[in-house]
Amino acid sequence: MYKDYHFKNIGQFSAVAGSLGYNSQYCNGHFKLSKDGEESKLSFDQIRGLAKVDDKLADISMERLSLLFDRNAASSDFDKYREELKGVNITVHKWDSLKEGKDGFTIIDHEHKVCYTGKELYDYANKNGFLLDGSGSKLEPGEYSQLMDVNGTPTKFYRGKNGKISAIQKREELIIPDTLLGKTLLKQQKEALLKGELILIKSNKGNDIYLQIDKEVNAVIVKGAKEINIPQQIGLHYLTDIEKTLLANGKQTPPVLLYDDMTKTGFTAELALTPDKKGIEFRNAKLRPEVHLDKLISRSKLQSGFSPGIEIPDKKKVENSPTTPEILQEKKEVKADLQQKAMEPALEKREMSMLEERLIKAIKTEDYKTVNEIAQSGYKPSEAVRKEIGELEMPDLKKEGVKRLLGIEDPQAVKATVKMEKEQQKVPEKGNVKDAVLKGVNQLFQM
């Protein structure tokens, strides 16, 4: 009986009555209904009085339908698919006067005696991650679907952190934009993408964002750090961008210095993603009993660079110590000093990327391991950085060594460096000059 159904308006009432086998005829503001020889007459006001809504019941129905509804079949052959749905007690009423698509039909669920629009079904599915692919597929936030055929077009769906689903259709030609999410992509980054690697960029809020090319849709797609399980820090060690990129690409990092709470000392280990890519595992761990907590906390402060959203490790959380207030006070003082320096005109004129800023910082603090990592990543210093390095106050030998690591060619400097190395560090007379210089530099920097 139509009186048992939940509907919102006269149009839906008409659809319900028709689905139950009633013949309806509009006449002078009334509906005449007839079925099996019985007739009834209802005014618009009477119909409105019968209207009722149960949002909870509608959600139960839409969840059921989301598990079996196939939007592709509905779009390609609506009438045929409508007949198939009758087998699961679903009637779809198409409104010829309305435009095609999700706004043009009403769904009636006879199992739950409720009806709603196609748009309401699509909105529910989109909000809750259902793909409406006929198989009940559902995406979690940050997840991509398998490649699907949508009206003849290869398509993937992506559910964002806000829960909404967007479609990514396959492109005929791969185009890597010069800028993405407000960030300029360097030549080296584009080359890495073309090699199938993930690259790391920073959002305007300083969050890590990973980019890669999806060959199935021939487009650059975005992934967050949580989606590929790359942490910001492990214990007292803040992961560098290079280390994050290595992990994201399934590689292990060079040895990093960590803290063993059981022995109260440091240890080194190479980091790698676990086989299920849901965590981090240590490889080739070696205890470093000469390294203690205070040194690690100082190193951690330098690594963090006081980036937004990153807290300096509290020694009290690792080892009960009365020095925690002093450590936090030192953090505030250093941070204030950094902020003051950031306002100097000379710094404001520098247009360096975050990688270049990190490089200059590593050179100033004599963190040559980081300098070497940046050089090995394929980075080529800009003119601004070359000038900056040239103006740094540091021993000539170290400065020339840094230039050699970064591939800044200076034939005269190379000759002078080789000569100095021969005299001071006994570089071999034979062999490649570049290898000799690099060997001497490595010895000098203790890398």
Describe the structure in your own words:
Helices cover 39% and strands 21% of the residues. The chain is elongated. The N and C termini lie far apart (84 Å). It is of the alpha+beta class and 447 residues long. Strands 7, 8, 9 and 10 form a four-stranded antiparallel beta sheet that branches. It folds into four domains: 2-128, no CATH class; 179-224; 233-346, no CATH class; 352-445, no CATH class. It has 18 helices and 20 strands.
DSSP summary: helix tally: 18
Please report the total strand number as a whole number: 20
Q: What overall geometry do the principal axes of the alpha carbons give?
A: elongated
Strand fraction: 15-25%
Task: Give the helix proportion (percent range).
Answer: 25-40%
Average predicted local confidence, pLDDT: 76
- N- and C-termini, Cα separation: 84 Å
Structural class: alpha+beta
Q: What is the gyration radius calculated from CA atoms? A: 33 Å
* Major sheet attributes: 4 strands, antiparallel
Q: Work out the count of structural domains.
A: 4
| Multimer state | single chain
Task: Indicate the low-confidence ranges by residue numbers.
Answer: 97-101, 304-332, 334-352, 416-421, 423-447
In short:
The chain has 447 residues and is of the alpha+beta class. The protein has 18 helices and 20 strands. The strands form seven sheets. Strands 7, 8, 9 and 10 form a four-stranded antiparallel sheet that branches. A three-stranded antiparallel sheet has the order 1-2-3.
